[in-house]
Amino acid sequence: MNDHYSLFRMLVSMSRVQNMHGRLADSLKSTGQQFVPCTRISASVGRLLREHLDQGRLEFVTSVQLRLALGEMACFRVHVRDDHRTTIDHNSTELSRQNSTKVILSTVYAVEYLNLVHVHPIRQQYLFAVPTINSVCVCDCAGGEDHCRPGHQYNNCTADTLCVTSYHAHQKPVGCPSGAEADLCCQISVKPYRNWIFRALYIGQPATVAKFAYRRYSINNNDQTWTLEVEQHLTVTLNEPSDFNIATDSLHFSLNGGLPHWQLKEGMYFHRQLQAPQQNANEKQRANDDDDNKLHVGVPLNEPDEWDPNKLGWLRLENGHWIAHHGHLQLPTLQHVQVDDCKRQIYTVDYNARHSGGVGQPNFGTSVQENEPWIRRVRSQLNSVEIEHRRSPTVDVQVQINGTRFVNVSVSHRDSVLSDFEASIVVDSTNNRYLNLTLHNARGMLLGTVYTDESSQTAELAFSLRAQSEQSDSSGTVHTVRLALPPEVNGSRRVCLEVNPETSVCRTANYVVQPTLKQPALAMASWSVKQGECENCNQITLQSIGKYLNPLQWFDGIGDVSEMIAVAIESLFSILVILMLLCLCRRFAWPILRLAIHPAGKSKSPGI
């Protein structure tokens, strides 16, 4: 070999997979026993020897290639040997040692894929409420006291949340003493439904963020004692390759891939807003996880620059006050009212606003968790929305170990376990197909296959899942899984779960079709019958009569010269009519009345 002998010698070997057969169940943390659920991982180990001739030392670089799925933990065991007397024989491709190799340390490194989160930026947002609209009206008959005037329109009425007055002329004079048209004046008030406050969000395209846990265990007492020495959480963005180092252990991590196929669309969403600033962080987190604070879709929602009353979000909270865009003009146009009995103050009212809390439960749509089974949890932050995934494609992880001692690496895992399971294929109300699995006493990674018939000859699709106990029943631990299926699956199927290469459990998945979701019926007009609170309105009193004896009231309402000329002509015409009636009475009615009092056949007595 010449002086340019390669400084790098690659010794590549496939990983030796060590089945721990449950021994990790007896592993210890620093203060007690800690179960280390190492899952079955496909991995390869490569070793690179670097010879630094100028420094007179060797450097061993060992790399482990892993493919981690969400929830998996990869464990690789490192044996460090005393290689201080190791020499390089340039005439051989093998390492020769003058003394026997001595193992001085055995360590287990664990890398766990904790969660996958889509972080959606919030582009715009506002606070709103579902409006509850109410009307209080007074019907005023023509004549009598004046309880309603045209100037009643478009005024602020009370100190309520939002209140505007309205005026409705030409109402039916039912019950009125005269036959003239009546007037109706109303106060329209708007309040939040149950004092609930919602936050409308416009979310953008997400960044994909994954969290990993790195742990280091030391092994003693013939592999019976595992002591957790180091634990560190690593957060990386999967939108681009990521690299980071752990200096204390001379480890270098490289992550790539793993972008999920599912994500929320860019657009408008809303959720309940917390109204208790005094809550601590734990209480706020519990409230965020409550059903009332899920991210909702499925109903029309105004964008920040929209104010459509037929969508949610037109009653907004700004600077501590409830406002509606041009509310003094908009609210009267939403109200439709008609009088049933003016004297008794009975009227019916309805509003041209689809989403309000006036009658029954408002329509809040559905939560994204109900629509998208791949969503595990939603967290709404101040400037972002975090969507945690239930499953994810695998992530390529490369772990590189650098050192001056020879390192032997073996990948460890626990056996997978499954006692039994039930399966069903469900077509839900929105025609989505899912494979529902209920696993009993399951642990570890399971490989699944769906066959078209009972003979298990033709495989239709395959999947993998990681079982982790969620609850317990009388028969042991139970784990439920929901997997999306393609539309081609249109009947019962045979499902097999492979626990290990020698053991499989197969069951028949029955085909269940749920009723198709009916389209919501168009809302019909829901007229509400109400009675006004003005008990003494439209009653004839001495005050109402005396008002018309005042000559100043005769000219009330005259606004310009044309009205004055019209009143003068009407007055002259009325006087002429009265004079004609007097003439007719004197010419015809008076003689008839005199004959009735003094008949013509009766003469006066003498002496009178």
Q: How large a portion of the residues is in β-strands, by DSSP E?
A: 35-45%
Per the CATH scheme, the topology name of one domain is Tick-borne Encephalitis virus Glycoprotein, domain 1
The profile of the biggest β sheet is: 12 strands, mixed
Poorly predicted segments:
1-35, 82-101, 276-280, 283-292, 469-474
Task: Label the CATH architecture of one domain.
Answer: Sandwich
Q: Identify the overall geometry.
A: elongated
Which key terms come to mind for this protein?
Tick-borne Encephalitis virus Glycoprotein, domain 1, Immunoglobulin-like, mainly beta, disordered N terminus, 608 residues, 11% helix, twelve-stranded mixed beta sheet, 36 strands, eight-stranded mixed beta sheet
A few lines on this structure:
The protein has 608 residues and is mostly beta strands. It has 6 helices and 36 strands.
Q: What would you note in describing this structure?
A:
There is one protein chain. Strands 2, 5, 8, 12, 13, 14, 17, 19, 20, 24, 25 and 27 form a twelve-stranded mixed beta sheet that branches. An eight-stranded mixed beta sheet has the order 31-30-34-35-28-29-33-32, with no helix packed on it. The chain has a six-stranded antiparallel beta sheet with strand order 1-3-4-26-16-15, with no helix packed on it. 25% of the residues are buried. 11% of the residues lie in helices and 45% in strands. Strand 34 (493-500) and strand 35 form a beta hairpin. The chain is elongated. Residues 1-35, 82-101, 276-280, 283-292 and 469-474 have low confidence and may be disordered. With 608 residues, the protein is mainly beta. The longest helix has 37 residues, at 561-597. The chain is built from six helices and 36 strands. The N and C termini lie far apart (178 Å). Among the domains are: 8-120 and 208-261 and 390-413, Tick-borne Encephalitis virus Glycoprotein, domain 1 (Sandwich); 420-513, Cell-cell fusogen EFF/AFF, domain 3 (Immunoglobulin-like, Sandwich), CATH 2.60.40.3980.
